[in-house]
Input
Amino acid sequence: MILNTPIDMHLHLREGKMLRDVIPYTINQFAAAVIMPNLVPPVDNRQRLESYKEEILANSENFTPLMNVFMREYTEDELLDLAEDIFAIKLYPAGITTNSEGGVKSIENIYPVLEIMQELGIPLSVHGETNGFVLDREREFAVVYEKLARDFPKLKIIMEHVGTADLLGLLEEYENLYATVTLHHLLLTLDDLAGGMLNPHFFCKPIIKTPADKLKIQEYVKKGHKKVMFGSDSAPHTIKNKLKGAAGVFSAPVILPALAEFFEGDIETFQKFISDNARENFNIEVPERKIELIEEEWTAPYIVGEVKPMWAGKKFRYKVL
Amino acid sequence: MILNTPIDMHLHLREGKMLRDVIPYTINQFAAAVIMPNLVPPVDNRQRLESYKEEILANSENFTPLMNVFMREYTEDELLDLAEDIFAIKLYPAGITTNSEGGVKSIENIYPVLEIMQELGIPLSVHGETNGFVLDREREFAVVYEKLARDFPKLKIIMEHVGTADLLGLLEEYENLYATVTLHHLLLTLDDLAGGMLNPHFFCKPIIKTPADKLKIQEYVKKGHKKVMFGSDSAPHTIKNKLKGAAGVFSAPVILPALAEFFEGDIETFQKFISDNARENFNIEVPERKIELIEEEWTAPYIVGEVKPMWAGKKFRYKVL
Output
């Protein structure tokens, strides 16, 4: 099976040794990826953006990093300067997930920024959760998505890592809302995290939810919904930090083998989900690259640097060549 | 504040070193406790019952262990022999929680045992969860509680560690259903386990659930509902095993200080919840013992043997004398 130019629309690569450890697993499977900016300090200025992009390029080949910057109250000049070199600006409500302490406290504060983004055609990427009860956070955030979608009808807004079925309904109601779906929200539920022994390696924000949520997400992905795109949210943490409770699933190594099983030979829909929808929705132009999967038993790595991957040691029916 | 003869209606003491490490924290606060039998091998015969009770007595003073045995297909002779020396028989659906692999696979198999228990007046203690989705397991088990309550109208059945509000409604519908409530289901929700960093020390079966469930449980406890009794389900695991995902909250050290804050001076209701309801519902006769709490800052222990207690290091306004 050959995939054309797979793009991971939501990826955490970290920096330094961690980046060097994990990036080979993405490059092996993806032609491009949208790189999240929640480092310490965040990627939120030209200098940091360039040095981070250089670090990624220095550690990759035939791979296009689509850079995001961290939302703050940017000036118009800053945005004009950044526009050409970024894919989107990532909005984290303050304190919601890993390194989001410096996030946005009130949406109104960034309305001037959103206004300019809309004019310049810079998409908005959103971690959509409130500070409410962990299972309700995405549902409660829906009103914010709706307000943003109405107030900025020409701004393309990406609801990242959708884990709550209700959010998918918004895709039909608002032309300018899009969604990314992770491997873990597509294939897991809270049972995988806490149904047997507690498994910290499946703990992430937003939390994996109910069987009903999973089924609805699968339905949207299986019908090849045009506005639904793959974004892994692969987020490596050291085993030590995972055992301290850090949120994030390092899914990068197993993505295409797991998705190949999920799509069961429906390569056409797989291709849309993994690349075409994203490229068409956002006019992404990156060098084309073919990725081949063969039907051959393959075992997910047990460890990558200091990180335990999702489904470590699990056997898959497909292998990336 | 003086409590008369507090009884913990659901306690895991383990064996050997672990028992010796944890039992002082119960004896200090309780005159008696119902001791759970899910050891390896389980407490399910006279010999094991006697040796376990002896071990507990050898490590305690002024304390009455009310022994439970593990449900299996006991003969009438066995039950006649055990009846005088046990408080109840504990039913674990197979594979549901710690050391429950040898539990009951089909309720019908134990109908003859339940028949005899009903005749002999031996209560039935139940871990009420199905093998369904982790948040639905107690709700799904309600039909089993209802069937048991209808089929054995004179058998006293205890719904242990209720974490789902719906189960409480059954207390009104069926005269022979009772409930125990733990400290963690009374005071915590899934947010405490997985709302911020993942906290394995709040992971238990049944899992702590939603704010609505917690509020309903608090409502029943605060109104001093006669059929609602305190049962800690305090369940120590070594830190090592907790980090491997073992289910259980070691709440024993903080129970009375935490409940004293919860009841905010309503000693009458506190007394019912912690002792009187249980003694009246089950005609429990144990030597009376007064436990005094004073208003003085007290810090929960950081570590007990190899176990991290619930709320380790937290400051409380009440101290057990």
The radius of gyration of chain A is 18 Å. Chain A touches chain B at residues 133-135, 189-191, 193-200, 203, 207, 210-211, 243-247 (CB under 8 Å). Residues 9-251 of chain A form a domain with the TIM Barrel fold (CATH 3.20.20.140).
